[in-house]
């Protein structure tokens, strides 16, 4: 950890009025509302557009129960995570600046290493998924205009590789934003965009229902022998669980978001309020997207309401929605990459504390005021990360199955297992007590869901790989 003197030296050029917390870190200015913006940006993502498809696989009963159950579990465990920000006491204890630090303080070094591997793999996977989804939305704008000019039966297929490359170049510039503290405005814009495209999807679905053109729905979803075989039904249901789990897989960034909050009121109290605001808002949108999307399309619901072309007209509104998706994902990309950047940059600074390449900031000033600075480690390391993520996205541009796999990998360990185990350790809950048994039951249930979702998504990715070639995928 950097000392106060090191930080003061680093920021002395033009930042004499910079204030610091008691551990030498820059003073935090985050509020409940800025945290809520970060959380909403990280939760409402491309996964919301697959909820109609997920509901179609599970049916009215299974879809609604799954959405509400995951929402309740995510809210409960995210509040457990908020209480572990300071150790050993949730209000007066030592701050843990990252998820790994929280786990190390409460569960030890081995668990911390396992958490780090899962967290950063999950965050990197999210970034790849967002690159894929953003490019599909860009292509959807192109396709929408093509269908409008040539008719809905026209062959309008385009490669999304150029769009992925363009997005990667833009993210290289945005990745020079130093940390989450500086992302509040971008997160607020991204959160507004997420509400925008979700509302458009809901509105178009509602218009379809009102017009009497809604699809066929059933209590149990797609029907065996009519829509799918028994095996397909099982695999699709597993993948749908993964998709829904993905929509609540945001715990990997919660600790870093909490680390932006001011110390007053206590961070855990403020974070719990932000969790409540965010999850209540998000769940309302999720239910509307799932319910109205399923009612509009029925058992034939597309994998993505806006890019799967369940809606062709009004084409300009579909275009606007997809532009909103792209803007949102640009911001969400940065929220998910910041913990990854923080991890390896902190490690490098501790390993080579005297390196100019790693530590020196080069300020860019207007007059006497510094408006921006760049750092050679930040410039090269983050550029390499974005380039690798873009190449991997171009190699495997699959939507629903990839979402399900990400959800399966990240949901149980990061959203449920570590928060539950840390809470048990922090509160010293006795083995075999009623609360211990309930917590372990939640743990076991979510593990089973994750295993089922992983199996379904791997099967789906295998099917997609057999019909497409890396770097040559067209949508």
From TrEMBL:
Regions that span the bilayer: 32-51, 58-77, 117-141, 185-210, 277-296, 316-336, 379-396, 402-420, 441-461
Which keywords describe this protein according to UniProt? Amino-acid transport, Cell membrane, Membrane, Symport, Transmembrane, Transmembrane helix, Transport
Q: Name one Pfam family in it.
A: Aa_trans
Instruction: Identify the GO cellular component terms for this protein.
Output: plasma membrane
Keyword Cytoplasm part of the UniProt annotation: no
Give the InterPro entries listed for this entry: AA_transpt_TM
Looking at the record, the residues that make up the Amino acid transporter transmembrane domain are 28-460
Gene Ontology biological process terms, A to Z: amino acid transport
Give the subcellular location: Cell membrane
UniProt region (Disordered), positions on chain:
1-26
Q: Name one GO molecular function term.
A: symporter activity
Check the UniProt entry and state the signal peptide residues, or none: none
Q: Which domain of life is it from?
A: Eukaryota
Q: What protein name is recorded for this chain? A: Amino acid transporter transmembrane domain-containing protein
């Amino acid at each position: 950890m950097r000392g106060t003197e090191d930080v003061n030296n680093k920021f002395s050029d033009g930042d004499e009025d910079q204030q610091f917390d008691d551990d030498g870190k820059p003073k935090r200015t985050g509020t409940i509302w800025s945290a809520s913006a970060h959380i909403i940006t990280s939760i409402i993502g491309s996964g919301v557009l697959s909820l109609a498809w997920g509901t179609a696989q599970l049916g009215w009963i299974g879809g609604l129960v799954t959405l509400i159950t995951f929402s309740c579990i995510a809210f409960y465990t995210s509040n457990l995570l908020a209480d572990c920000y300071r150790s050993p006491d949730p209000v007066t204890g030592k701050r843990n600046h990252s998820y790994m630090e929280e786990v190390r303080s409460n569960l030890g070094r081995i668990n911390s290493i396992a958490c780090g591997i899962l967290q950063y793999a999950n965050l990197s996977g999210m970034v790849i998924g967002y690159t894929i989804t953003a490019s599909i939305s860009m292509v959807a704008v192109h396709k929408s205009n093509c269908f409008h000019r040539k008719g809905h039966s026209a062959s309008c297929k385009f490669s999304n590789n150029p769009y992925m490359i363009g997005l990667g170049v833009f993210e290289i510039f945005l990745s020079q934003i130093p940390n989450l503290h500086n992302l509040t405005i971008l997160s607020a814009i991204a959160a507004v965009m997420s509400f925008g495209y979700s509302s458009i999807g809901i509105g178009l679905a509602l218009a379809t229902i009102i017009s009497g053109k809604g699809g066929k729905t059933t209590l149990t979803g797609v029907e065996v022998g009519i829509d799918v075989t028994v095996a397909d039904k099982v695999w699709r249901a597993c993948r749908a669980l993964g998709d829904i789990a993905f929509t609540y897989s945001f715990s990997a960034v919660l600790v870093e978001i909490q680390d932006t909050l001011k110390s007053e009121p206590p961070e855990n109290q403020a974070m719990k309020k932000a969790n409540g605001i965010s999850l209540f808002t998000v769940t309302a949108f999720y239910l509307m997207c799932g319910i109205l999307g399923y009612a509009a399309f029925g058992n034939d619901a597309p994998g993505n309401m806006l890019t799967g072309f369940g809606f062709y007209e009004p084409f300009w509104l579909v275009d606007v929605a997809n532009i909103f998706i792209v803007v949102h994902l640009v911001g969400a990309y940065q929220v998910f990459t910041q913990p990854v950047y923080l991890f390896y940059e902190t490690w490098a600074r501790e390993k080579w504390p005297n390196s100019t390449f790693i530590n020196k900031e080069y300020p860019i000033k207007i007059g006497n005021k510094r408006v921006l600075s760049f750092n050679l480690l930040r410039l090269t390391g983050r550029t390499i990360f974005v380039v690798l993520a873009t190449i991997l996205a171009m190699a495997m541009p699959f939507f629903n199955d990839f979402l399900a796999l990400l959800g399966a990998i990240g949901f149980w360990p990061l959203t449920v297992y570590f928060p539950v185990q840390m809470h048990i350790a922090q509160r010293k809950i006795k083995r075999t007590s009623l609360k211990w048994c309930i917590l372990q039951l939640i743990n076991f249930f979510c593990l089973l869901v994750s295993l089922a979702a992983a199996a379904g998504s791997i099967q789906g990715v295998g099917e997609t790989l057999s019909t497409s070639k890396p770097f040559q995928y067209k949508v």
